Each structure stands twice: as structure tokens, then as C-alpha cells.
Amino acid sequence: MILKTELLHHQHTAVEKLQHIKIGALYMEMGTGKTRTALELIARRLEVEKVDFVLWLCPCSVKSTIKKELEKHIDTGVELIRIEGIESLSSSTRLNCELLQLVQSKKVYLVVDESNLVKNHRAQRTINIERLAEYCKYKLILNGTPISKCEKDLFAQWYILDWRVLGYKSFWSFEANHLEYDERIPGRISRVLNVDYLVKKIAPYTHQVKKSECLQLPKKKYKEVGYSLTDYQREHYEEVKETFLFELDEMKPSTIYRLFTACQQVISGNKVISKVEDPIKTLPMFSNQTNPRILELLNNIGNANLEKTIIWCKYTKEIKDINTALEINYGPESVVNFYGDLSKKERFESINKFTGDAKFFIANKTCAGYGLNLQFCNNMIYYSNDWDWATRAQSEDRVHRLGQEREVQITDMFAHRTLDERILKCLNKKEKLVDSFKKSIEKFKTKENIRGWLDGGEDLQ
Predict the structure, then answer these.
(1) 248 and 387 together in one domain
(2) Are 112 and 19 in contact (CB under 8 A)?
């Protein structure tokens, strides 16, 4: 394999550390060039014939992006790399059999890109990748950070590399030495033990790169844009809040998520019509042209001088509603969508159109937040947020990465006196919304104060 692009200084440092060992972890923040760094390590192994093929596993949504990245950096030898989606290994017997035959017949270098997708040791895709890894002497995991939620994330990722690094053949032995659970809430981790041991074990095989340490990027400028619910919408919000709060059981996290989801549906402009114990069903309260949230979005876009803009949404219905509104106001060719129900071909076409003449890229961040290189755009609007800081950070860095030359403008929309305000507070503090809610329950005890929490009020001292 011959590479046609040069390593940057921080990438060269990473290669120098990991080039003499068979396994490794590149924890490089988004935009610092972990793909190019990985290719250098691979090329050096291919050159001395330690490996003769590469299996590159990544999220399905970024397969086309990875392919473009490989073509950008590789002069000859791109045919030696096979790219497959991590999610596909969950259910495709045919693909698992093909890849198992591949790793048994060739000297394969295994790359697991965005390795946080295999942090669940029980997941079928993790089990299948572990089986493939047994036949690969050279392995590399790539991710932005070592941990997205807690140190529990480390076990499965490092088991894929080599169980001997952490020293545990099973999750149960790892759990016994490092995890302490909350006695009141089954499955909730209250404390992680012996963290220094874990750090010491993985350090020789790990290279971490933070964007702030190696890149001089333009700043990110944040703005919050608020609006008010209509009287009818506010009335329904209070009704839904009371109904789901009455059924709340803090011992069952599902009831907390249902409360949050029901409230967010109303904020988005939907009427919740299902019973509290049934799956949440909704009907629209407004047309696209009367929904106060969409009207506020259009107003904000009108003030942006029609710069290319990425609009992040939580729900697919929001994407479709915004698409309709923008098509009416700016024309069908100005808008593209990116979400889970679209085929790979449709997603690829959306990216190409946005790279070209399209002005608006409307996407779900859990789908489009990984792997896309959109640094030609510097304007982002979060139409609706969820409570996952990790995917929020990933989505922001689709534009705030190597190659961005302008200040990145990030706008968060929120409805006054609703759960929206609480979500923004948690995101600003990088705190999980559920954890914040449970702390409030333990602290306040009374439902009157919890109601205030759901309306974005300040925590009581």
C-alpha cells in the first residue's frame, strides 16, 4: 500500500508509539485525523508482510465516508481493504460467515472504527466481532474518547484487542473487581473501583489526541433562541406532565424516559393521545406553517443570510415537517435529509447535494453524527435536543474539524418554561438528564418541586 498524503506532527507521534506493537487504541477526537494515522500503521505492517488484508468495521452510516477517506489518502492498494458496517454483524448470518472465512484464510489487520458501538459485551455484534478478532494478530480500535459513559465501556473494546491487557477473561470477573451497583436501582452503577489499575493496564497500548492540543481551529460560538408555546400547547404540556408524573416510578428508568418523551412530543407540536401505560402515540397539533417551533426556525434561518445550514432533530417526523416548510419557502432543491430510514444510496445522494448547491441539511444526530466530514459548512441549528452529550459532541464536530476555516455558529432552539431548558442546562454541564432528574427526586422529594424541574426551573438549594 502506498499513501499519498503526509502525516501531521501529532499523527506521527501516535504512529511512533504504536508501530511496534500488534494491538492498539487510537483515541483521537473528531477531526484530528485518526483514519490517516491508522492507515500509516496498516501500511507499515503490509510492507513487511505481517498482514496481507484489512477488515475495516465502522458504523453503517459512514461506510461511504470512510471509502472516500481511504481513496483520499491511498495511492495504490485500496483494494486490500474491505469496509463493513458494525451493525450488519448483529443479524446477517451470511456476512458473519463470509468474514469468518476471510479472517481464517488471510492474515487480516482488524480495525474497529467508532469502537464505542461495541461497548456492550452482551450485544450480538460484539460477540461476532470478538469471534473474528480471535483470528487476527493485528488489531486497532478507533474512537474519540476511551469512555463515553463510564469505565464499564472499556471491557468489551479491550477484550476484542486482547483479554490479557485488562487481565479478565469474562465480564463477570471485570465487574467483580471494578463495578459497584446501586442497591436500590438494579443495574445502576454507583461507583467504579480501581480505576488506576485500568489506566495503567491500557496506557502502553493507547495514544490519545485532543483537538485542543494539536489543531488551531476557529472558535465555536453558541446562541440560544427561545420561543413560547401556544396557550393550547401549554395546557396540553401541563396535562401530559401531570399524567406521566403520576405514573413515575424512579425504580423503573423506563417511566422516566416515557415522561421525557411525552413532554418533548408536545413541545415539538404533537398531541399525545395514548394512555400512559401504552406506547406513546401522537397526532399533529399544527400545520407546518403554524407550528410555533417551525416558525421560529424559519425566522432564525431568515437572519442567517442563507448560509449553508445543518439542522439537527431528534425525531424523524420533525425532519419531514421541516423539509416541507423549507421546500415551500426556499424550493425543493435547497433541502436534503439524512436519517435512519433512508437507504445508503439516498444518504450518499444527500451528502453530495449538500456539498453542491443545497442549502439545508436536516438530520438526526444519532444517524449523521458519526463520520461525516461537513467542514465546508459552519452554521448549525439544534432544532431539538436529546440528553446524550456524547452524540451532541460528535455532531458538533462534523463541522468543527480539520479543514474548517470559519467560526462555527451553533444555535440551540428551546421552548420557554419546558423540559427544553433543563436539557440545555444538562448539556452545558455535560450531565446526563436522567441522573440530574434522579438527583432532584432524591433532594426535593415533593412533586411540586419536580414539576418545576420539568419546567426548566433552577434547582433549589
Answers:
(1) yes
(2) no
